[in-house]
Amino acid sequence: MLSEKATRQSTDLGFLADGGELGAMMRALDWSGSPLGPPNQWSRALKTTVSMLLAAQAQIVLFWGPDYVALYNDAYAPGIGANHPRALGRPAIENWGELWDDLEPLLSGVRQTRKTFAAKDRAFYVERHGYGETSYWDVSYSAVPDDDGSVGGVLCIVSETTERVLGETQLRASEARYRELNATLEQRVAERTAERHLLATIVETTDGQIQALDLDYRWLAINASCADAYQRIYGKRPKIGDSLHEFLADRPEHLAAATAIWSRALAGEAFTSIEEFGDISFDRRVYEMKFESLRAPDGTRIGAFLTGIDVTDRLEEQARLAQAEEALRQAQKMEAMGQLTGGVAHDFNNLLTPIVGLLDMFQRKGIGGEREHRLIAGAAQAAERAKTLVQRLLAFARRQPLQAVPVDIGRLVADMGELISSTTGPQIQVTVDTPEGLPEAMADPNQIEMAILNLSVNARDAMPEGGRLSISAKARTVERAHGADLVPGTYVCISVADTGIGMDEETLAHAVEPFFSTKGIGQGTGLGLSMVHGLASQLGGALTIRSTVGAGTTVELWLPVSHAAAGATDAEPQTNLRPLPAGTALLVDDEPLVRMSTAEMLRELGYRVVEASSAEDALQRVKDGLRPNLLITDHLMPGMSGTDLGLALRNQYPELQILVVSGYANNEGITPDLSRLTKPFRSDELAASLANLTKAVR
Q1: Over the stretch 105-134, which tens digit does the pLDDT of each residue have?
Q2: What SS3 state is found at 657?
Q3: pLDDT tens-digit profile of 653-690?
Q4: Cα distances (angstroms) measured from residue 240 to each of 39, 93, 215
Q5: Closest by CA position to 685, among listed 609, 608, 597, 585
Q6: Out of the domains of life, which is the source (predicted)?
Q7: Helix (H, G, I), strand (E, B), or coil: what is residue 406?
Q8: How far apart are CA 380 and CA 571, in angstroms?
Q9: Which residue, 361, 398, 362, 429, is CA-closest to 605?
Q10: HEC assignment per residue over 47-81
Q11: Are 63 and 109 in contact (CB under 8 A)?
């Protein structure tokens, strides 16, 4: 079996798993000599960017850090020739030295200004095959932010255009020579018949496609390159004297397209056009064609001719580049949205804590008359809705703590049937299908129940006139790369399908974006699907949606199968017993309102409360002689964190009871042996946590 360290390292390198040859090379490379250090210690931003570029089909190289350390993908490697693979993980100056005076100002400019540098057919002098040459590239250099917001590196999405640029240069030269000859054709025909042979030789040997038709659509001239093109796309070659109508008589649609464009040229119009031609059974290619009139020595129009080039590969490369740029923009947008929503949720939890605590106290003490009781109950219900909204924000931002355990999904879905039926109403026919022997999935049962309920409510709203709602769970195996970025393996797939109004393509494209909603004002937060999407991603699964307008929607939640022994999926019931007065409680929180609300709860529970606004303030009070029985501390505070404070005091007083309170809903930085309570909380939730602390001491 793999050791725990090896398993952790393997997990840390998961972002390299689908990276092709370069991904495998990065996993095997000795990074001790690289300025970046080992990949498992890279920043999250660097890991995310490398994962994206390794999976991309476009040519991408990332220059990271002040040394511009190079990281690139399979598509980019051939473009640097003999510099691969020694360039991988090394400062750029070591392998791009011959063009460093040209490249370094571009990279440093992007780092300093954060502005994208883009250019078409940019010339670079390179020595990649043992000799110097001038190459041409379409380039887009963009700044990539690191975890702390600073510029971590420069992402270069490139496409080599050397072959096309040189070909177009040669074609332009040929066209220039041809126009020069054509301008003096009358004189040359009269004076030097020998030059006809020279012109024919040039036309015949050029790589550009040249052909001429008379007014009856018969070929007056066609060079070898153009005849080769017809052979490629139609399986046959025209020759001088052939009729275009007869040549494409067996393909009426192709004939109509060809005569439509040639008729403009034969009518005297000079123009340039980009069109796609060819029989799909052979090949379809895109050509850039320039049409001009062909005239006799006396000026009479006798036909038309074209010069053209095959631009299929160039257009496909441009499309791939645009797709890669769009994917990068979307990844950066979603990452920024996740950071924003996580921070807002943290602050919102701090604001909700005194509100929830105060309303809870009013209800427990029965303050006011019947009217006041109704108002307080309504406010408490609104606070609970706000708390749920924050949980959805955190789930979207992937900052919601998950208690992932082996879960019997079949039983969980079956047990929810009655709840879903009562929620959706009598107009909706609900069916639940869960086969026997379904494997356990690694999931948080409470979050999964909330996700299924969210999806069911969405389905209900999509069937205003009634319909059928089908909920099922099946074991599914993914053997190769999945469209939802699922790694190969076994999953439990929960399906929620309705017969409602469905979604069009534009709505479907935005369905999981936060705050996007098709419902009216006040009828939805737009966080339902985004919350489920974030939950699935946190658990290592995925969310897929299929929908057709008028035919309904099917949403599938994929969860990885658990390989651990099945555990209890029911949360331990919270006790309503209030702990006995236990002396002095040291309460630490940098938010005064949160501190005030929590202090009042503790006093009601029988504690003498000493308040501190920071960890440093709390340590000073202990140094001055305070001997608390209980420490309740916020986790994230300016200066020392609450977790570090708890560990410091535990070293001095092992019998001290410690409860860490967090508004960020994130376990990061909190050691597993410290009890934890999430903001906002009511008095009974605080009492239950303190009761559990008392049990642990006993």
Answers
A1: 999 999 999 999 999 999 999 988 888 899
A2: strand
A3: 888 999 988 876 555 556 667 888 888 888 888 888 88
A4: 64, 57, 14
A5: 597
A6: Bacteria
A7: strand
A8: 23
A9: 361
A10: HHHHHHHHHCCCEEEEEECCCCEEEECCCCHHHHH
A11: no
Amino acid at 535: L
445-461 helix and 417-424 helix, angle to the nearest 10 degrees: 30
Q: For residue 487, give the amino acid letter.
A: V
d(CA 477, CA 572): 33
Torsion region of 200: left, alpha or beta (phi above 0 gives left; psi -120 to 50 gives alpha): alpha
Q: Which two tokens stand for residue 658?
A: 């410690």
CB 670 within 8 A of CB 636: no
Do residues 331 and 52 lie in contact, with contact meaning Cβ atoms separated by under 8 Å?
A: yes
Token pair, residue 127, equals 């020595």
Measure the CA–CA gap between 116 and 100, rounded to whole angstroms.
Answer: 19
Listed in sequence order, the residues at least 6 apart from 503 whose beta carbon sits closer than 8 Å to its beta carbon are 511, 518, 545, 547, 549, 553
Task: Count Cβ atoms within 10 A of the Cβ of residue 298 and give its class: 0-12 exposed, 13-18 middle, 19 or more buried.
Answer: exposed
Q: List the Cα angle 321/323/329 in 5-degree steps.
A: 105
Kindly report whether the peptide bond that precedes residue 66 is cis, defined as omega within 30 degrees of 0.
no
Strands lying side by side in the sheet with 301-310 = 219-222, 209-214, 301-310, 285-295, 271-277
By DSSP bridging, strand 542-548 and strand 489-498 are unpaired
| Residues 309-335: tens digit of each pLDDT | 999 999 988 888 887 777 577 656 656
Amino acid 437 reads G
DSSP of 457-499: HHHHHT-TT-EEEEEEEEEEEE-S--TT-PPSEEEEEEEEEE-
Q: Count how many residues are written for the chain.
A: 698
C-alpha span between 538 and 600 (Å, rounded): 36
Burial of 70 (0-12, 13-18, 19+ CB in 10 A): buried
Q: Is the preceding omega at residue 85 within 30 degrees of 0, hence cis?
A: yes
Single pTM value for the model: 0.38
pLDDT tens string 417-474: 777 887 778 888 999 988 888 999 888 777 787 788 778 888 888 888 889 999 999 9
